[in-house]
């Protein structure tokens, strides 16, 4: 089946794969060839795909995934492989997000933005550290 991962900046990945697991809003969603058509939202987390017995991970942000006709299309605001992640910058972003979450005068929309930034940062750290194991 074909997997296409697209961000606003670039086509992050496009190739034939064996399977993919995406972080859906309701939990992880495993997709194999001949999967039933579906469209669902994504939450920040780790996307893993299997190609020729080798698993590859990407940190992805919010977005949607569409499955139809042995094609998986992921539209997301972030898609990074481990070697594209700057761990120091992510740690600083995580600290900023945590600080924003604890401030008393934070507006609700700023609180939500900080929470999403925290989730994206944690996803990047997970993918980066998983590769070092």
Give a brief description.
This protein has helices at residues 87-102, 108-132, and strands spanning 2-6, 11-16, 19-24, 27-32, 38-42, 45-51, 54-60, 63-68, 71-76, 79-81. By secondary structure, the chain is of the alpha+beta class. The model has no long low-confidence stretch (mean pLDDT 90).
Q: What is the fold named in CATH at topology level of the largest domain? A: ATP Synthase, domain 1
State the helix count.
2
Q: Percent of residues in helical segments?
A: 25-40%
The CATH class assignment of the largest domain is Mainly Beta
The CATH H-level homologous superfamily of the largest domain: F0F1 ATP synthase delta/epsilon subunit, N-terminal
Backbone shape: globular
- Please give the radius of gyration in angstroms: 16 Å
Quote the distance from N terminus to C terminus. 29 Å
Strand order of the main beta sheet, please? 2-1-9-8-5
Beta-strand proportion:
35-45%
CATH 2nd-level architecture of the largest domain:
Sandwich
Quaternary: single chain
Q: Which residues form runs of ≥5 with pLDDT under 50? A: none
Average pLDDT metric = 90
Along the chain, the helix and strand elements come as EEEEEEEEEEHH
Largest sheet: 5 strands, mixed
Instruction: Tell me how many strands there are.
Output: 10
